[in-house]
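quick one, 295 residues, struct below
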Amino acid sequence: MDVADLKVLEAVARHGSMNKAAVELHTVQSNVTARIRSLEREVGVALFHRHVRGVSLTPAGQRMLPYAARIAKLVADAKLAAQDDGPPSGALTLGTLETTAALRLSPILSRFARSYPQVRLSLTTGTSCSLTADVAECRLDGAFVAGPVDHPELHVESIFKEELVLVTPRTMRSLELLRSVPDLKTIVFRMGCSYRQRLESLLAEMGILTATPLEFGSMDAIIACVAAGIGITLLPRGVVKGAAEQDLIAIHTIAPDKAYVETLFIHRHDAYVSSAMRAFVEVARSEHGALMVAA
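---
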């Protein structure tokens, strides 16, 4: 068993396909199939179920996969640590909530790109749940997520505090009217979004248990749907302030114990903090005056 075998295992598991994994790894399917079969012979158990739609992990494969990702990450970190000399450079892969990207990251990213052009920064968006899993499973170097996060393998730092507000069509000037709306719809991100979970909890406390969720993949689409009168949502005040000032939507303050949420930066405890990551931290500190990653 070597690191190359583990990379193949992770790629096949992620794609659910030998062929798609081969494309990503710049090889042919027969090589991927041969490596997986060799790995299965070495560990003595089947790691994948083969079926007409592709492959899926067996229970043994599911147990092995986290170790494969961590070993591959440790080897990559060892190489990075040896080479990490001079000006920050190399790849830095981060994740963020879409709301954080819209509200907070633009000046950070702009200044970072100007100051450190040799760093290949990649930013992906997702829900708090998916981003936390991606960091824990070594697919991302770090991520901005909504708190709280309690994970034994992750280092967590509070960065920003956002005020959440209930967002409704502009004609709904009182939250009391929500109880009288037939077939109330919530306009939300996919499952795993912490704002969605908070909205569901808030409505439940108001005695509204039958709201129908409509899932969208972008913040702009969510705001547009609320403005069109389709439903309601819960978002940071800063995200919807402009639309409210244009009288496209109405925003409603909620109780402080429900309104405020911390945006956290997370990374693995055992990950090597590269010069690129340190530089990103310093830029973010100077832009927002917040400590992010323990060096």
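Residues 59-83 form the longest helix (25 residues).
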